[in-house]
TrEMBL record, chain A:
Organism: Shinella lacus
Family as reported in the entry's similarity comment: Belongs to the binding-protein-dependent transport system permease family.
Keyword set includes Lipoprotein: no
Main location: membrane
Boundaries of every ABC transmembrane type-1 domain copy: 93-272
Keyword Transmembrane helix on entry: yes
Protein name: Proline/glycine betaine ABC transporter permease
Subcellular location: Cell membrane
Swiss-Prot/TrEMBL keywords: Cell membrane, Membrane, Transmembrane, Transmembrane helix, Transport
Record's bilayer topology term: Multi-pass membrane protein
Regions that span the bilayer: 73-91, 97-119, 140-164, 220-242, 249-268
TrEMBL record, chain B:
Keyword Nucleotide-binding attributed: yes
Presence of keyword Iron: no
Complex and partners: The complex is probably composed of two ATP-binding proteins, two transmembrane proteins and a solute-binding protein.
EC class name: translocase
Name recorded for this polypeptide: Quaternary amine transport ATP-binding protein
Annotated source species: Shinella lacus
Family that this chain belongs to: Belongs to the ABC transporter superfamily.
Gene Ontology molecular function: any one: ATP binding
Membrane topology: Peripheral membrane protein
Record-listed E.C. numbers: 7.6.2.9
Residue span(s) of domain ABC transporter: 5-265
Record key words, sorted: ATP-binding, Cell inner membrane, Cell membrane, Membrane, Nucleotide-binding, Transport
Length: 306, 395
């Protein structure tokens, strides 16, 4: 009888093991260099979130939610944050939030330029796409092994895993967003003598904003999920609450972590979705393209509603 | 008028290296044969045109005949495969990217079939678009945009978004955007085709009105022969990437030269196409009768002054009186009409009054001929000079 295991002669596992070991041995400085900004960014965000008094944080977040996604989301945000605090996992929730916030900044810094590059150069996209396919079909916790080998254990290596997992959707959506810009409009750009940079900044990016924000929503949710999973390699935050609960067979404790995670995820989802759908409307607010304008110039938004 | 744009033996081949297709075309192969033998699609096949400055040059043809390809070659949205495009003598095909951008920013602009406005910008910002690309100061381009918006009748709409406007208004914005750059060559690829008929006619009138003052050189693509006749100073008709007929609208209607072209001209309202000149009997040289200069015609004669201007009409029966030395003033009693030689037949049919002669005048109001209702009718019903297959002769 043939058994599938008889065929198990390919020592792929050993090859990968050897490859990763070789990388971590020879490229140590590279990984340290990667780690450094993440570590500091994370420390800063975490410190900030932890030090602001709870009521102020609730107010601030609700205000931001209001501006980005409207009143009902603001209300939901306030209530959810209070519930999280009441569950007694405020500090852990803030750590998770710091993980996500930092990851999003890094993802935006990497993902949007790579997405733009992919959209404007088919050869780049032909290289990037299969990589994204592999990244997105690999189960998330499979990332953890190489991450541990290359970066060690703890919160910062965990954050690396979060970023790696969360960046693909943003690259994809940025790429699609730019490619989907109406061909005739891009042509109008050419016809009126736009150079490559003007084409990007005057036409492609502004018109791709709604799609890119859709990608941001995906990235935020992926980061949320991953920020929990990385508790397995010793990262702090809400994931750790769940892990501890499970480890101690303390279902209640684990459930508290779970509830807080769900609430946080819903806040982030609603806020980013609100941003994306609002920017989709062709109105005068979208003119000034989105996020920061809406954060700082809310009156422009009110103008449109009337 | 001088030549602004000259297209010289232009070829455009889609789908790969063009040489095999071009050499076959030069040896007389058709578009279909080139496709069968090489798999390459012929976009343009040896197109040569000369476009006068200040004219509206119409490119006509069935779908797929290469109209858009030709228009888009002019600003090199399509890269020509061979040949030259001379703008004031300078070959656009040879320009590098930098110089091409400069030409697109300042010399050649474009109006798109589906408007291609930026949905996230106000109407005014859309009009400013070309100027912004040229990095012109905001205040300057704003002033310019407002000025142009007033010209196209949208002064009050500058701060609206494009989606708040109707189709016709949006295309006015498209036109304003093209005019704002002060480019002297305008490419309009089916610019009015997406509009419904009434708005379309209105836009055509608007373009003609603007053109009277702006005197742009316009390359206008259409598949509508009526539109070509209404707007065109000259018309080029394309088939399979070639120009099969080129000329003034009236000449093309009068003599299509091929069945393909005759298909377009068949249902044309000739009274709007032909001018009076085409039905006029040219005046003979003035005779000196009884010491007066008289241009004789079928039903009498027109007395003219030294400059050739008509003083009055003398009925045929009274010509002899004049010859006999009668005073001219009472003889010129019979009434007559006069019309410019450039008026259309439709206009002359309005001035005919029973039995009255009609004098045809040139630009200086000098008589150059006469026109009769019979001649007009003959012109309206005349079948084209080119031989046509029997079933098509039902004009
Ligand atoms: N990008 C392209 N790639 C390949 N072939 C093309 C391309 N653009 C046009 N063609 C071909 O070139 C020929 C001329 O097309 P073109 O678009 O110039 O026609 P057109 O006269 O503008 O037609 P329409 O009235 O439908 O707009 C057609 O046979 C078309 O299939
Ligand atoms: Mg076309």
């Amino acid at each position: 009888m043939f058994d599938a295991n008889d065929l198990a002669v390919l020592p792929v596992a050993r090859w990968i093991q050897a490859g990763v070991e070789w990388l971590s041995y020879n490229f140590r400085p590279v990984f340290i260099a990667i780690k450094w900004p993440i570590e500091n960014g994370l420390a800063l965000t975490d410190a900030a979130l932890q030090s602001v008094p709870f009521p102020i944080t609730v107010l601030l977040f609700s205000a931001v939610a209001w501006k980005l996604a409207g009143r009902s989301t603001a209300l939901f945000t306030a209530v959810s944050l209070v519930v999280i605090a009441a569950l007694g996992v405020w500090s852990e929730a803030m750590t998770t939030l710091a993980l996500i916030a930092t990851a999003i900044v890094v993802c935006a810094v990497i993902g949007i330029p790579v997405g733009i590059w992919s959209a404007r150069n088919d050869r780049v996209w032909n290289v990037v796409r299969p990589i994204l396919d592999i990244m997105q079909t690999t189960p998330t916790f499979v990332y953890l092994i190489p991450v541990v080998m290359l970066f060690g254990v703890g919160t910062v290596p965990g954050e690396v895993a979060v970023i790696v997992t969360a960046v693909p959707p943003l690259i994809r959506f940025t790429n699609i967003g730019i490619r989907q810009v109406d061909k005739e409009i891009v042509e109008a750009g050419h016809a009126f003598g736009a150079d490559s940079r003007q084409l990007l900044w005057e036409i492609q990016l502004p018109l791709a904003v709604p799609t890119i924000l859709g990608g941001l929503n995906q990235t935020v949710l992926t980061a949320m999920v991953m920020s929990v999973v990385i508790a397995m390699i010793g990262a702090e935050g809400l994931g750790l609450v769940v892990m501890q609960g499970l480890g101690r067979l303390d279902v209640g404790h684990a459930a508290i972590g779970g509830i807080a995670i769900v609430l946080l995820a819903m806040i982030l989802d609603r806020v980013t979705q609100g941003m994306a759908s609002r920017s989709g409307r062709p109105n005068r607010a979208a003119v000034k393209a989105g996020f920061w304008a809406r954060l700082f110039f809310p009156h422009k938004l009110e103008e449109i509603k009337t | 008028m001088s030549e602004r744009l000259k297209i010289d033996n232009l070829y455009k081949i889609y789908g790969g290296s063009p040489e095999p297709a071009i050499s076959r075309l030069r040896n007389g192969a058709t578009k279909d044969r080139v496709l069968a033998e090489t798999g390459l699609v012929v976009g343009l096949n040896n197109v040569s045109l000369s476009i006068e400055s200040g004219s509206i040059y119409m490119i006509m043809g069935l779908s797929g005949s290469g109209k858009s390809t030709l228009a888009r070659c002019v600003n090199r949205l399509n890269e020509p495969s061979a040949g030259k495009i001379l703008l004031d003598g300078r070959d656009l095909v040879a320009l590098d990217e930098q110089a091409l951008r400069e030409v697109r920013r300042t010399r050649v602009s474009m109006v798109f079939q589906h408007f291609a406005l930026l949905p996230n910008r106000t109407v005014r910002e859309n009009v400013e678009f070309g100027l912004k690309l040229r990095r012109i100061a905001p205040a300057v381009r704003r002033r310019k945009a407002e000025e142009i918006l007033a010209v196209v009748g949208l002064a009050a709409w500058g701060e609206r978004m494009p989606h708040e406007l109707s189709g016709g208004m949006r295309q006015r914005v498209g036109l304003a955007r093209a005019l704002a750059t002060d480019a002297d060559v305008l490419i309009m690829d089916e610019a009015f085709s997406a509009l419904d008929p009434l708005i379309r006619a209105e836009m055509q009138d608007e373009l003609l009105r603007l053109q009277r003052t702006l005197q742009k050189t316009i390359l206008f693509i259409t598949h509508d022969f009526q539109e070509a006749l209404k707007l065109g100073t000259r018309i080029a008709i394309m088939a399979d990437g070639e120009v099969v007929r080129e000329g003034e609208p009236q000449d093309i209607v009068l003599d299509p030269q091929s069945d393909y072209v005759a298909e377009f001209t068949r249902d044309v309202d000739r009274s709007r196409v032909f001018d009076v000149r085409s039905a006029m009997s040219a005046a003979a040289a003035a005779d000196l009768i009884g010491g007066h200069r008289v241009v004789l015609c079928a039903n009498g004669g027109f007395a003219i002054d030294g400059d050739g201007r008509v003083k009055g009409h003398i009925a045929r029966a009274r010509i002899d009186d004049l010859r006999a030395g009668a005073d001219i003033a009472p003889l010129m009693a019979s009434s007559f009409s006069a019309i410019s030689a450039d008026a259309k037949l439709l206009d002359v049919s309005r001035v005919f009054t029973a039995g009255q002669p009609v004098a045809v005048l040139d630009g200086d109001d000098c008589i150059i001929g006469t026109v009769s209702p019979e001649a007009v009718l003959r012109q309206l019903s005349s079948s084209p000079a080119a031989p046509k297959s029997k079933e098509k002769v039902h004009v």
